[in-house]
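Figure 2 data, in text form.
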Amino acid sequence: PVKDFGEKDFELTFMDYKLDEPKYTEFGARERNASYESALRVRTRLLNKSTGEMKEQEVYLGDFPIMTKRGTFIVNGVERIVISQLIRSAGAFFTSTWYGGKQLFGAKIIPNRGAWLEFDTDSSGVIGVKIDRRRRMPVSMLLRALGVEKNEDIKKLFKKIDTDTSTSYIDETLKRDTTKTRDEALIEVYRRVRPGDLATVDNAKQLIENMLFNFERYDLSRVGRWKMEQRLENDFKLNKKGGSTEYAKEERVLRVEDVVGVIYEVIRMNNDPEANPDDIDHLGNRRVRAVGELLQNRLRVGLTRMERIVKDKMSTLDPATITPSQLINARPVMAVAREFFTTGQLSQFMDNTNPLSELEHKRRLSATGPGGLTRERAGFEVRDVQPSHYGRICPIQTPEGPNIGLVGHLSSYARLNEYGFLETPYFKVKEGKISGEIEYLNGHQEERMNIASADVKATPDGRMSGKFVRARIKGTPGLIEKGKIQYVDISAQQAISVATALIPFLEHDDANRALMGSNMQRQAVPCVKPQAPYVRTGLEERVARDSGLVLMAEEDGEVVEADAIIIKIKSNNAKVEKKGKNKGIIEYQLNNFSRSNQYTATHQKALVRPGDKVKKGDVIADGSAIDNGVLALGRNVLTAFVSWRGHNFEDAVIVSEKLVREDSFSSIHIEDFSVDVRETKLGPEVTTCDIPNVSEEKLRDLDEEGVIRIGACVEAGDILVGKISPKGESDLTSEERLLRAIFGEKARDIKDTSLTLPHGKRGRVVGVRIFSRDAGDKLSPGVIKSIQIEVAQLRKIGAGDKIAGRHGNKGVIARVLPEGDMPYLPDGTPVDLVIDPLGVPSRMNIGQILETHLGWAAHHLGYQALTPALSGATEDEIRGELKAAGLAEDGRTVLYDGHTGEPFANRVTVGYMYVMKLIHMVEDKIHMRAIGPYSLITQQPLSGKAQFGGQRFGEMEVWALEGYGAAHTLQEILTIKSDDVMGRASAYESIIKGEMIKKPNVPESFNVLISELKSLGLNIEVKETRSSEREE
């Protein structure tokens, strides 16, 4: 309870809380650009101690975003994900330093919050301790201050372990210790922690009490207490509680036994030549903070601020009339929650390019963020792959860049235990038989076991065959007798993440390329006509189901109605029938062409027809990039590995016009453009279709409100919303002011501020949303209404688009060839894609070749091949499939050049490869500028596509032109094309009038240079000489 400063008058107690129903549905929140949140209300009781009067009241504590069924949060109409943080756990850790060929051990006690204790041993055998990074002192001094006063008592505690003949660590430490009594020790400790303050025994007692034994200031957390008990279990048997893992507040602060236990272990390790320090990067020592705990840590800050306000108000308000709602100001709590979800480092804009990217984003683990590491400080060790990562964090999928190794992904089967440590499942071995029983082990438990790999040969009843099996023997790989095996891996995909497990023949790919393959699958754009791969790993259905983008039947039943908007199923379940108001019919709304965060279209299409019978859990509607309930990120394409007239040199590829014509890789992209109608000082802005000085042609698609009609085709520069703003006197030109004076015309004092389609965009208007104050929408101050226009476009594949396979084999389309020019097979079939064969051997991603062979066989035999990652089809099996399909066993064939009709000199590898189109599309990146905006100071063109800027002509480019002596070209680039303000205006004029371009003037950068020299105190004057004087 919160008490007032004197703790005499008031006491405010929290009783319980409730969350209201959310104001909008998930869909409604997205439509209205609102948050999917519900109000938090808290019941409180205020006790007036002087009168004994009690007041109960419900207080509103702000709106909290609620997690949707898919694990996301909707904040201001945008889906966001809070990713989990991988952080060093609280508890005791043992470290070591080498000194003169001897390993000296130390320890750290790290709480969840509060002061750190760091122990170390120096070369003479003195064990010292630092409190909160302050000055070092002997540990005996700290023990005395904590109540172990006499030297004999201290020696007795460590008598059992301090047995080293050469050095007695306790004796050495006591020699160094200047204090003899508890009071002396307290004063010395106080001097070390608070140098410069007046040290009295009472002050010191209070300080230590607050620093280490007060729950407000020091909290080990239940994880920390559990880790302490685990780590110190071999010496001081701490009071083990049966079953329950909830620790009381008294148990979550430090205890004298903890300090003694840690010193005991340090001495033991110093005496043990085999001892090794703890590895801080081991996953047994790092834990995951999920969204709940991250938010809890932020709310603690908000509630502490609120508590301060409550205490202030208790002392200022009138005691007779005071109520809880007057005391509690919810602002700090709301501000902290809002900040966490909108600008927090771990709250990210959801990546939903396709179903896989969304799923993998939720499974992401980051070592950065508040309380974590920073990119600059993180060394090589933290980023590196660890043996304890096996089955917990994927060794392959991580970004390539400054975040490499700091951002990871959960392995396929990993889970979190109650303390936030990562665990992975194993089959238990009982009496030499693999049982069906599954047990989850954390990083430390696994290191004490012998675990066989998943490809162990076994009979149907689970007996392992052979005498020796490959296993990890207490963490190190090797061969071991089968009788000593305790556990068996659950699957070959256990160690890798979902995206990596979707790569067939992963075992034949180099790890760097597999990393690119995993990351690029998350960038695949959903095609209009998706196609499941011929060569699958078997995980595709599971990914599609778990992504939350397919609809699944909730109960057995029969389809009553199915169209593009809704599916109705009559349930066979009697319970549903009684409960539902519409006679046991369950309705499923389909999502139609809505915009994803990455501007791709998400769309669901029904797979069932009226009259179909469905079972619970059946897929009844596909999402985008899903084909009949199977993840389909791209298309199967007939590929030939051959060099073709240098057009596919390096990583360029050639595609057939057929892929463009048949819309194989076409995708839909939806962007929204918005405009605010504001109240200005000179009056309100108005949306209208009557805009001054604009041709009828441009206004033909606007309605009387000035908003474009749905279905209109728009190009860059077209008006989407016609809007006019009032214009002040100062904005008029001198001619207009003259006309005003003569004719007194007051009418047209407006300027055109319409919303137009930006440069480089095109498409068709598919949606218009209008938000206004009158309709009750929340708008920022000064805005009357806000209009959002959605423009969709169908993008066909073309030169400059980036495509990629699943093995990190990426390339850019260099040319779209007519079908007749493509190389063709002996039966006349032209191939769809031509890839340079030289890109394969050096990159060592041979998986793509095996996939091509097997895909060719699967296409001819009419099935989908399932070949799981890391335990896929062998070469012999592929040869057999090719033979069965009536193809050459080496997967190669004679290929004819479409230009000449001649066969190529050698036989060529041809087959079906799965290819994806990535989000890096040429239409988003292509950019050109003639005239545009200039920077204010230097008067040079801006840079970047967003600012409609130009290309930088840098120092080295200038050298190139100087090298060729192209003086006039260079002068033109450095003056009239850049920052010669007068020159560029007159050059533009000359071009329009068709005259000769005049000579350049002084560029603005010269004036900037002179100003900079003036700022250094050098007065520079420019002396101009006329050209006639120069010639003399």
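Caption note: The first strand starts at residue 2 and ends at 3.
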